[in-house]
Amino acid sequence: MAKILPSVFSQPARNSAPSVSCTASSHPLSGGVSHVSLNSNGPQRVEWPAIGNGQGRVSTTHVFCASSASTTRLSSRHEDSPLILNVCPAWFYAERSGLSGLYHGNAKQIEETDVREFSQSRITEEDEEDDREVLIECRDVYKSFGSKHILRGASFKIRDGEAVGIIGPSGTGKSTVLRIMAGLLAPDSGEVYVLGKKRKGLISDETLSGLRIGLVFQSAALFDSLTVQENVGFMLYEHSDLPREKIAELVRDSLAAVGLKGVEDRLPSELSGGMKKRVALARAIISDDRVDHSERELVMYDEPTAGLDPIASTVVEDLIRSVHINGQDARGKPGKIASYVVVTHQHSTIRRAVDRLLFLHEGRVVWEGKTAEFETTSNPTVRQFANGSLRGPIVY
Ligand SMILES: Nc1ncnc2c1ncn2[C@@H]1O[C@H](COP(=O)(O)OP(=O)(O)OP(=O)(O)O)[C@@H](O)[C@H]1O
Question: Residue 395: inside a domain, yes or no?
Fold first, then answer.
């Protein structure tokens, strides 16, 4: 029995049946758990290897699922967020940040009883897989609108330099998450950390956080009565003392970066849907070039390709990539925007524009993975979504 994790063995299994027991042995080098055996109801005895890093502090998460037929390693990652729990009614051995234990239940029971507890590990915890700075972290965020409980314990991190997609069924709270990250909406409970500092209110209450956050709305949200020039340069006209000619030059540069020329004097009503989205993108990336560009920047796009034909979508997807080339801004100058988040439903956008995905379902992140894993994961919720199937855990 592993000494380092006494809680695993001393605490009663949740919702336990009397015949379940769990044993483990220490890894000779790391001191972590190297092997876990689960003896569950009936004759089957399931065993599986576990990789622990022990030493009293477990930063790696391992979730194992023991069904009567087989034992599957569901996940082994370093995230604080809850893992793939929407899998099967079974026994789970979950090890994370000192909150290790043996759990039983179907997805609902697991999520409702244990996920909040899982996400309580400290923000300062080292991440062994990805040590890039965390720009924004949401921890156990809840948000309701009246009686509609939209976010129910959403936890995730966005790191410096990442291109992250947030996907999931309609109405699951993706745009709500973006607005909370952007500081336009306050969570009912849970925390949002910006560069490791807990946000206390909305963005309007904040002193400089060191992170510039841009949000490109789904509808492009251009001001109808302003020209493209005025829309793109809006922030600089309102909040900088730059001369008008200089703003005009920056607007021109930003529009050129999204492939638009000579549209400065047009009104939004004179643009196609794709052009409006590009203008919104230009508005998100424009900035006063006298400002210290060592300040980090995160741009968030809410369904940037919704309503566009496949080719126009490709143009916008590639633009999103290109304006975020690491180490360069939209005008090819050194330095700022390298991180972005895209909420999308479109497969092409998932494939082309982002590298990592967060899958939001019923108000929580139920799956995270690289874009390539989206097509191959066995997670039934993601599989159903990827295949557009009517059968599966997502109920319409
Ligand atoms: N300000 C608000 N007041 C009341 N209800 C709201 C508000 N904002 C969002 N909602 C509701 O919260 C739910 C989640 O909305 P949200 O836009 O975050 O979902 P989504 O996952 O982005 O959906 P979609 O993919 O369809 O755009 C919806 O039912 C929506 O009607």
Answer: no
Nearest protein CA to atom 5 of ligand 1, as residue: 145
Integer angstrom CA distances of residue 93 from 22, 223, 227, 256, 317: 9, 53, 59, 54, 40
64 and 213 together in one domain: no
Residues 270 and 371 in one domain: yes
Give the residue among 84, 77, 49 at the shortest CA–CA distance from 61. Answer: 77
State the CATH number of the domain containing residue 200: 3.40.50.300
Domain membership of residue 144 (yes or no) is yes
175 lines ligand 1 (CB under 6 A): yes
Per-residue pLDDT of 57-74, as tens digits, reads 222 334 344 433 333 333
Nearest atom in ligand 1 to the alpha carbon of residue 345 is: 25
- Does ligand 1 lie within 6 Å of residue 148's CB atom? yes
- 181 and 56, same structural domain? no
Question: Domain residues for 204?
Answer: 134-387
Report how far ligand 1's centroid is from the alpha carbon of 273 (Å). 22
Residue 92 shares a structural domain with residue 139: no
Q: Is 358 in the pocket of ligand 1 (CB under 6 A)?
A: no
Cβ 145 under 6 angstroms from ligand 1: yes
Could you tell me the distance, in angstroms and rounded to a whole number, from the CA of residue 217 to the centre of ligand 1? Answer: 13
In which band, very low, low, confident or very high, does the pLDDT at 174 lie, cut at 50, 70 and 90? very high
What pTM does this model have? 0.63
Angstrom CA distances, 94 to 11, 41, 365, stand at: 13, 19, 17
Asked if the interface predicted TM-score (ipTM) of this complex is over 0.90, the answer is yes
Q: Are 103 and 174 within one domain?
A: no
Helix (H, G, I), strand (E, B) or coil at 367: strand
Looking up tokens 């060191």 gives 210
CB of 196 within 6 A of ligand 1: the answer is no
State the total domains in the chain.
Answer: 2
- 345 alpha carbon – ligand 1 mean position (Å): 14
pLDDT tens track for 255-289: 887 778 888 999 988 888 778 888 888 887 777 66
